[in-house]
Design brief:
Rossmann fold; five-stranded antiparallel sheet; four-stranded mixed sheet; extended
Length: 495
């Protein structure tokens, strides 16, 4: 891979150069098309052309402004269900793209509507599929294309990449402000209620209290409220985009300090305090000027770990979704075998990872000082193991202490312990003593689990979808079992 994106040609010796994401599980090779593929890391999507990409040298990542996302039928259903939040983060990264993200599915819409193909093996209802896709098409900058087969999907993706070259790449024309305004409003809607922003010049703290179609209302700690109008944001947007070096904050009019602080929540605008400017980037910025106790500020992209426990857990979740494990007697033998095998694999793999984590934690924990986090706490504990030394050594020690050899013949541990009780010998005289330290679960934070569960219930409260109603019932059943599932039992109770 070259460090200079200009050095990556879009067409080379009559062949279209296609950048392919290295994390693709079943990559297209475009065998019958004039294509040269190069495996790189794409921040969004699976396939792109160099003309639509900007290279991030620090992360050695290509950030496209148009890309194709490959989905098998099963991949699509997974993105619609238990990986929905993850895929929607990818959709949000494409909101400001001139051409949007193109999702090409290796399945037919007819099969999905008829309950055939991938839908036949997944507990996903048609209303859920239609409702989610409609919401995505309405809210995000995305198109979804059902190609029917893998071969047709490659052909369609190739045509999309070729057609993208007919448009003017690299965002050489200014993005309409309306697109950026909608993105900003979406970011503000997702802002935690207690999140606090700071103005870049006066360092005054304030909160966003209301987000409306044409204005944003903020409130300062002294109770003062102030409406920030859309037209004023558009003026600032024009000043920033007119100057590639950014807009100098010292040039702001009086009382306009909050505008750049709010605009910096947009994924492509960032305040550079060292230079005293607010600038626009071709790619999403990793930092935002938001302070909040509950806010997650990790801007890194979530990737799938190359770990056995992760793959086995995904298979287990899929199996649990497809079978009713509350009625095991009604399941077929092959299903029970699959479930048992997957549970065993997850238990084994998880235990291996747990031990590796424990080794790292031992270097960070101190005795009698538990470490707490979101889901619970752990503490350092010592385990003491005793094993008798060589028989002749033990008997010689006991005889020297006045204990007849015949009284402990066979080295019954209870007899040895009785002998130790009536002599001045120490345990170390007859036992090999080894002390090992380990990490054990000390407590479970049930409040955190209850809070996350309640958050999911609240999100479902406004929906009338039949599939969602079924999910509500499952959550209520889970809530009824949460005490049992999260209870902490001592070692004595487990024995």
């Amino acid at each position: 891979m070259t460090a200079d994106p200009k050095a990556v040609p879009t067409v080379r010796e009559g062949r279209l150069v296609v950048l392919r994401d290295t994390r693709e599980r079943k990559p297209w090779a475009f065998p019958t098309y004039p294509v040269e593929t190069r495996d790189v890391t794409l921040s969004t999507g699976d396939y792109a052309v160099p003309a639509w990409c900007v290279h991030d040298e620090c992360r050695d990542t290509y950030r496209p402004r148009f890309a194709v996302e490959r989905k098998s039928g099963q991949d699509l259903l997974t993105s619609l269900t238990w990986e929905r939040e993850r895929f929607e983060r990818e959709l949000r990264r494409a909101r400001d793209w001139p051409l949007g993200l193109a999702v090409v599915v290796e399945a037919s819409w007819t099969d999905i509507v008829a309950g055939r193909g991938p839908v036949a093996t997944r507990a996903v209802g048609l209303p859920q599929v239609v409702g989610t896709l409609a919401a995505w098409l309405d809210r995000y900058n995305v198109t979804v294309h059902f190609a029917g087969t893998r071969q047709r999907a490659q052909q369609f993706a190739w045509s999309l990449l070729v057609r993208s070259l007919l448009c003017e790449p690299r965002g050489s024309t200014r993005m309409p402000f309306g697109v950026s305004w909608r993105t900003l409003l979406d970011e503000l809607d997702e802002l935690p209620p207690d999140a606090t922003l700071r103005t870049p010049l006066s360092q005054d703290r304030f909160r966003v209290t209301d987000v409306q179609k044409h204005r944003v209302v903020i409130e300062f700690p002294d109770g003062e409220t102030r409406p920030l109008q859309r037209e004023q944001f558009e003026t600032l947007y024009e000043r920033i985009t007119d100057d590639p070096d950014g807009f100098e904050l010292d040039r702001l009019p009086p009382n306009a300090d909050p505008f750049p602080a709010v605009l910096s929540l947009h994924p492509r605008f960032e305040i550079d305090e060292d230079r005293g400017v607010i600038v626009e980037h071709e790619s999403p910025t990793a930092t935002q000027r938001v302070d909040g106790p509950d806010e997650e500020t990790d801007g890194s992209e979530r990737t799938e770990p190359d770990m056995a426990v992760y793959a086995d857990a995904l298979l287990l979740v899929d199996a649990l979704e497809r079978h009713d494990v509350t009625a095991l007697e009604e399941l077929e033998t092959d299903v029970l075998v699959d479930l048992y095998t997957l549970l065993s694999d997850v238990q084994r793999d998880a235990d291996d990872v747990r031990k590796e984590i424990a080794d790292v934690l031992l270097g960070r924990l101190h005795h009698d000082r538990p470490a707490s986090s979101s889901y619970g706490s752990v503490q350092r504990t010592a385990r003491r193991n005793r094993s008798l030394k060589n028989e002749e050594t033990v008997l010689a020690k006991l005889e020297a202490a006045g204990i007849d050899r015949e009284q402990v013949t066979g080295l019954d541990r209870s007899k040895v312990d009785d002998a130790l009780a009536v002599t001045n010998l120490s345990e170390s005289d007859v036992y090999e003593i080894e002390t090992s330290e380990y990490v054990r679960k000390a407590d479970v934070d049930e409040d955190t689990r209850e809070t996350r569960l309640q958050g999911l219930k609240d999100r479902l409260a406004d929906s009338d979808d039949e599939e969602v109603e079924d999910l509500r019932e499952e959550i209520e059943q889970l809530e009824g079992r949460i005490d049992e599932l999260t209870s902490f039992r001592t070692g004595a109770e487990l024995e």
